Amino acid sequence: MLGISRYVKILLFLCICSTIFCTIFVTFPNLLRKRVNREVSARKTDHQEQTKEGLAILLRKRNYTNRQIGKMSLLGRWLLSSEGSLPPPIINKKKEPYLILIWKHGKFLERRHIKRFTNKKFSPWKNCTVKHCVLSYRSKDLNIADAVVFHLHLTQSMLELPTRTRWNQRWIFLTDESPLHTFLYGNQELFKYNGLFNWSMTYRVNSDVPVPYGRTISKSFINSPDINFSKDLIKNLKTKLITIMGSNCAGTNGRWNYVNELKLIFGNDLDIYGKCLNEYITEKVFWHGYHKLAIPVIMGAPRKDCEKLLPPHSFLHVDDFANPTALANYIRYLNQHDDKYFEFHEWRKYYKVINEHGYFGSISRHYCRICEALHYNFPVVKVYEDIESFWNKKQDCIL
């Protein structure tokens, strides 16, 4: 009996020990997990505040005024933030995925934004900060869509737009063209679309859904190597001094007269590709320029806009030269002095340029940006009652 009693005591002792160990190895981790979660949450909040403060400093360095910064959406500001910055907090949560309807021209736009002009389909949500969205090209989904995208460049008249039945939808006007070429068909007036759209979707960073052809961001690690850049590589690649890329032959700022003068000066050292040029900063700068390890020469877009959007000391602007001959002389000077030439590539140590236009196999972020805007933008009631106050060829373009 005594032996059994001792056995019972030992068993009871082991049970007590077991309970203590369970408390240590189960309860403590739960408490630790909660504590870690609180610390992570606090760090995220601190990081967001630091990011917000750092971003304001960064944007001011790029010559954005406080007024211009104030007009940007949270999404627009984040797109200009440093590499690795946390995205904005999700403001608009929805149990079901957001349904995005591309009105009428979804199949046509798919060539660029889904297929990237290849035979393969890519997910528009790959590496997107949010993925809780679904695309539709079906007009019958109009009444259930959260957002409806209208591609103005392909819209022939207001008659193509449906009758609006839900005012809590986001109607978005999309144009990748400059205000001079908003409409491809007919002699349409933009003011006739007043009072219809809630959001803008253009290459401008103060759009509700910004879709720039490319972006410049600060690198996470200063002086990090650029695997696509080396001085020897550039020397081996250079076969001509100047290449002209263009797709718009009309032009209203005399740029093709300028190009013709350069051609007379450089002769066979200048090649012209494409049809002509565009007024604004398109893939010709981000892809044909920076991606191809060249120095862009810009005409049309004001220098102050280029300084906001492009890496510092990375381009030449015709406004800095008295005439084509002066520009030509400086280009030849750079070609003869490698140290001065490579100063225009120093930015690659501190910045990176991101192509997001969908051409030449590059990624397109258009549909991802809509999904992000639906999650991040403030859910305020907004209508473009005077659309030309935002998008205006007379005030925004050089005529």
Explain what you see.
The chain is of the alpha/beta class. It has two domains: 41-212 and 359-398, no CATH class; 217-355, Glycosyl transferase family 10, C-terminal domain (Rossmann fold). The protein is 37% helix and 12% strand. It is built from twelve helices and eleven strands. The protein has helices spanning 2-61, 66-71, 74-79, 106-113, 231-237, 255-266, 283-291, 303-309, 324-336, 338-343, 366-376, 393-396, and strands at 98-102, 133-136, 147-151, 170-174, 199-201, 214-218, 242-246, 270-274, 297-298, 316-317, 351-355. The strands form four sheets. The protein has a five-stranded parallel beta sheet, with helices on one face. A two-stranded antiparallel ribbon has the order 6-11. Strands 7-8 form a two-stranded parallel sheet. The protein is globular. The termini are far apart. The chain crosses the membrane at residues 7-28. GO terms for molecular function: fucosyltransferase activity. It is found in: Golgi apparatus, Golgi stack membrane.
Order of helices and strands: HHHEHEEEEEHEHEHEHEHHEHH
Relative strand content: 5-15%
Count of distinct structural domains: 2
- What characteristic shape results from the CA principal axes? globular
Biggest sheet features: 5 strands, parallel
Mean pLDDT: 78
Q: How is the largest sheet built, in terms of strand order?
A: 2-1-3-4-5
Radius of gyration: 28 Å
Structural class: alpha/beta
Instruction: Figure out the total of helices.
Output: 12
End-to-end distance, in Å? 108 Å
Uncertain runs are 6-51, 274-278
Q: Helical content, roughly?
A: 25-40%
E-strand count: 11
